[in-house]
Amino acid sequence: MANIITSPDAYQFWRDDKLSNIASSLDACLVEVDDLNCLTDAEKNQILRLCSANNFALFQTSIPNNIEASLVHFNQQFGLQEFDRHLYVKDQGLAHITQTKQKNQAEFIPYTDRAIGWHTDGYYNPVDNRIRAFSLFCVNPAPSGGENQWIDHQIVYLRLREQNDEIVKALCHPQAMSIPQHKVDGVIRRPTSTGPIFFVDELSQQLSMRYTQRKKNIEFYNSAEIVEAAQLLDELLATQTQHHFSHTMQAGQGLICNNILHTRRSFTDDSNHPRLMLRGRYFNQIQTSL
Ligand SMILES: [Fe+2]
User: Fold this and answer.
1) Domains of the chain by range and CATH?
2) Ligand 1 center to 151 CA (angstroms)
3) Which pTM does this prediction carry?
4) How far is CA 175 from the centre of its chain?
5) What is the distance between the alpha carbons of residues 250 and 281, in angstroms, rounded to a whole number?
6) For residue range 42-74, what is the model confidence (pLDDT) as tens digits?
7) Where are the beta strands (DSSP E) in the chain?
8) From ligand 1's centre to the CA of 260, what distance in Å?
């Protein structure tokens, strides 16, 4: 497949195809799943079709007894097997996203009740551990707040390129964004991560993105064009287009996606029944041609 970043013809073909298939209503992206462990052909095909067009699908089901094992099996049916073994991942590859009182873990915003700005997961990972897909499942919502917003990163690229192709050229610079190393007690837990914001991923051959709005964590390449392009990216994310989605997931609802851009609003918890989301992060994309 020709590179859509560098080939104008490939871009035009991809653009037209993308715009004619992408969804703009939440209802059209929600699939009822009877049994996470054993999808029907219709359920599976619907999820694959949605992920192929939009890079995500929402699903809803009744929560079985062993929800972790069922989710792992659900994800495996889409080829999501190689999971990220990061610090707080539990067995079977799922992290429990819930508030924690543990001091070290609470330094990471997902394990607090605070809002999280636009980002792709694992934006700080080295290329060898690139996150290409993730799943997020709601076991228990917060009494108030905790809404997620998301947008297909590919449609963000498309909109910016249509606005002015100099913007996406700047964001594709090989050193566009650096995430400083993470050090704990003098030990480097994660090295500096430098790379483009938009790129064609070698493994999947798909237009992909690494990004975070956490300004204190990032450094842009020393170029006025790149800083301005990142501002225009943030402006687009802050608007409400037909391709922005907002939803507060209810118990039994989940998202499976090719590491799209997403946010979380802050929430108020019930300490007797805390908000709990199960998240899996994977090194490969959703296999749309199973
Ligand atoms: Fe995330």
Assistant:
1) 22-282 (3.60.130.10)
2) 12
3) 0.94
4) 21
5) 21
6) 999 999 999 999 999 999 999 999 999 999 999
7) 30-32, 56-60, 94-97, 116-119, 133-140, 144-145, 148-151, 177-179, 182-184, 187-190, 193-195, 198-200, 207-209, 219-220, 245-247, 253-257, 261-264, 267-268, 276-282
8) 9
